[in-house]
């Protein structure tokens, strides 16, 4: 991680953990000294999970070469992890409500590190896939409990800062991951990339036992309906798998792709989903949080998050093709330009967090998505002959706009849900992100497949154009909340 980013992160953590005058009020949260350490544990665990994903993505070509397998097969290291996370987010949230989110969080981190041992020792693709699937399952527990623990750590007036710190850590890990992976691979075997999480998970569990906020006394809950858990896993697995297979088929064969297999997967997933939703509608505490989706502000915030992440993923996929193929930039210059987007988000996240409560989250999110859409549109319309700085400001605009949207929107998702449903809200927050990213990836693959191989690069500006439409839809959904939500003073 660059020194300036490390310094910035350290200062921001310390600032966000300071006591304020509002703490005299009964707002919950931990006292300042313990709060600092609790925040550090939460951010360290989050950074570990995000960094792990970015490290492995960078190492995929090396792993494929060493194991002697096709690049199309090595993608299962990513897909298996994503499917496991998406399938188990909501069951993990429900389990946390019953067992305690701190307990689930620490067990999830310990198991995540243990599964990494399997990856370190792996000598075949399927052993690696098994290890990554287990890591995805355990990271679902970490993701759902993350939001609950933040809500218990901060007083209400400072919760926005905690959520912005989350975004800051995610952005920092995403920026540092590829460079750190390249450095590691130049010295060590790819196996060591998986080993980084082992000592980190031990450290997080040790600190977490001491400093994380305790679980409240257990409350009575409806008994776990295992059929609903099975339906939840089946629905998300079939739909996600169908999307993945369709995207891969279209990417390889274009519009002549075989639609039967992905079509059947998504059809069966839809039927399972209909049965699942009908069962959930009559429950007081449904596994699929339909009770939360009946809250207009919550539903609009989840919808805007899904469409925003779809736009972001389409832009991320199209960007390398734009820089390397259409504009014919060198690998070094392209790498620097690609970093501008997340760096701008990292710089904006703390500012965005401080604006929460001073201005309506609906307005902040709407303005952020309009700026994001403007940046995407400027990339779509960018001329072939363009300077480095003329490209950089467009990418920076995308990063600033997305960060201005993300923290206020996440804050609204967390605070618009009742406190006893914070786990389900955290599951929906992560689920919307993953679903949006999967949708964006599938759409980008389809757009690129519309063009013949000799003109496939033309898919890049079209992807930016469609992403612009998704960003504007997210802006509209965000602004639609304005008449229904009250501004919460958090700073």
TrEMBL record:
It is a multi-pass membrane protein. Coiled coil: none annotated. The chain crosses the membrane at residues 36-61, 73-92, 104-128, 134-151, 163-184, 190-209, 229-247, 259-277, 297-326, 332-351, 363-382, 462-480. It holds the Pfam family MFS_1. This is MFS transporter, DHA2 family, multidrug resistance protein. GO terms for cellular component: membrane. CDD domains: MFS_MMR_MDR_like.
């Amino acid at each position: 991680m660059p020194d300036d980013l490390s310094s910035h992160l350290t200062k921001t953590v310390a600032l966000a953990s300071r006591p304020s005058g509002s703490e005299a009020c009964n707002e919950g949260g931990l006292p300042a000294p313990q709060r600092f350490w609790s925040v550090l544990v939460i951010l360290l665990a989050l950074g570990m999970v995000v960094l792990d994903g970015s490290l492995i993505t960078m190492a995929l070509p090396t792993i494929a070469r060493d194991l002697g397998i096709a690049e199309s097969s090595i993608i299962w290291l990513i897909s298996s992890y994503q499917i496991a996370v998406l399938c188990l987010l909501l069951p993990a949230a429900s389990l946390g409500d019953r067992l305690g989110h701190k307990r689930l969080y620490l067990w999830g981190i310990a198991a995540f590190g243990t599964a990494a041992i399997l990856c370190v020792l792996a000598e075949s693709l399927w052993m690696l896939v098994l290890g990554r699937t287990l890591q995805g399952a355990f990271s679902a527990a970490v993701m759902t409990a993350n939001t609950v623990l933040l809500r218990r750590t901060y007083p209400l007036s400072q919760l926005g800062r905690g959520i912005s710190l989350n975004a800051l850590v995610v952005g920092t890990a995403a920026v540092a991951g590829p460079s750190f992976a390249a450095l590691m691979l130049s010295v060590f075997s790819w196996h060591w990339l998986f080993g980084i999480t082992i000592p980190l998970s031990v450290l997080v569990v040790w600190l977490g036992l001491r400093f994380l906020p305790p679980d409240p006394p257990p409350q009575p809950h409806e008994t776990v309906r295992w059929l609903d858990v099975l339906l939840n896993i089946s629905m998300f697995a079939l739909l996600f798998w169908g999307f993945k297979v369709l995207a891969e088929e279209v990417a390889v064969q274009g519009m002549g792709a075989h639609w039967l297999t992905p079509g059947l997967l998504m059809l069966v997933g839809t039927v399972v989903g209909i049965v699942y939703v009908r069962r959930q509608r009559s429950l007081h505490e449904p596994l699929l949080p339909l009770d939360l989706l009946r809250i207009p502000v919550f539903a609009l915030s989840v919808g805007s998050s899904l469409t925003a992440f779809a736009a972001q993923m389409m832009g991320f996929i199209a960007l390398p093709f734009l820089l390397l193929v259409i504009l014919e930039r060198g690998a070094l210059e392209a790498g620097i330009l690609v970093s501008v987007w997340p760096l701008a988000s990292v710089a904006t996240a703390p500012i965005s967090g401080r604006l929460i409560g001073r201005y309506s989250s609906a307005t902040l999110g709407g303005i952020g998505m309009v700026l994001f859409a403007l940046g995407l549109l400027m990339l779509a319309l960018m001329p072939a002959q363009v300077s480095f700085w003329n490209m950089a400001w467009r990418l920076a605009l995308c990063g600033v706009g997305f960060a201005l949207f993300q923290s206020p929107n996440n804050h609204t998702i967390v605070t618009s849900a009742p406190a006893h449903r914070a786990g389900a809200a955290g599951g929906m927050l992560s689920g919307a992100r993953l679903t949006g990213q999967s949708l964006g990836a599938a759409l980008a693959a389809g757009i690129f497949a519309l063009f013949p191989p000799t003109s496939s690069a033309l898919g890049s500006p079209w992807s930016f154009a469609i992403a612009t439409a998704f960003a504007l839809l997210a802006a509209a959904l965000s602004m639609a909340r304005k008449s229904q939500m009250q501004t919460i003073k958090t700073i």
